[in-house]
Amino acid sequence: MIELLRTRRTIRSYDNRSIPESVVEELKEAAVRAPTSRDRKEWKFWFVTDRAQLAQLAHAKSSGSKMIDSAPLAIVIGAKESECDVWVEDCSIAAILLQLTAQNHGIGSVWVQIRKRFTASGSHSEDCVKSALGVNDPDIRIASIIALGYPVKPRIPLTHDQLKWDAIQ
């Protein structure tokens, strides 16, 4: 596990290889194995590979979401807000498990914050994402999108000395 953490870096540029179905299935399993508060399992996941939908999702934020357009896979993570008061935390745990599972297969990823963000036109990013997915339930909230793909070029891991050790009190 520590080796995954040592090598994981944010990847925003992907080559044109698709992610094998066996890896997508493993990502789905990782998602639904994510722990949740009081075992509520209120999260929802949308695995998006459709180019038109990926293009729509790439416009979900005024900046910081364009790379979704070139990703072979994006995973939208949300939840029914009424089912759990800590849905944001539960979705965040699932997101990092998805990123580490992808990293284990040599697949790069980037977390795209959606909650409390806006599109270039000023509308809520969550509304943009829900529209792209055809989600009409007002109780569904969108926390984030994880864009995934094989890196165009690998990023060098941080060295031990580059870590923010003063964060440990």
SSE map:
Elements (H helix, E strand, L loop, with lengths): L1 H6 L13 H13 L9 E6 L2 H7 L15 E8 L6 H18 L3 E6 L11 H9 L6 E10 L20
Antiparallel strand pairs: 1-2, 2-4, 3-4
Structure write-up:
Strands 1-2-4-3 form a four-stranded antiparallel β-sheet, with helices on both faces. With 169 residues, it is an alpha+beta fold. The mean pLDDT is 96. It has one domain: NADH Oxidase (3-Layer(aba) Sandwich), CATH 3.40.109.10. The longest helix is centred in the middle third of the chain and has 18 residues. It is globular and about 45 Å long. α3 runs antiparallel to α5. The chain is built from five helices and four strands, in the order ααβαβαβαβ.
Strand residue content:
15-25%
Elements, N to C (H/E):
HHEHEHEHE
Any idea what the shape is? globular
Q: Structural class of the helices, strands and pairings?
A: alpha+beta
Overall domain count? 1
The CATH architecture classification is: 3-Layer(aba) Sandwich
Number of distinct helices: 5
**Mean pLDDT over the full residue set:** 96
Going across the major beta sheet, what is the strand order?
1-2-4-3
Q: How would you name the CATH homologous superfamily?
A: NADH Oxidase
User: What is the radius of gyration?
Assistant: 16 Å
The span between the termini is 23 Å
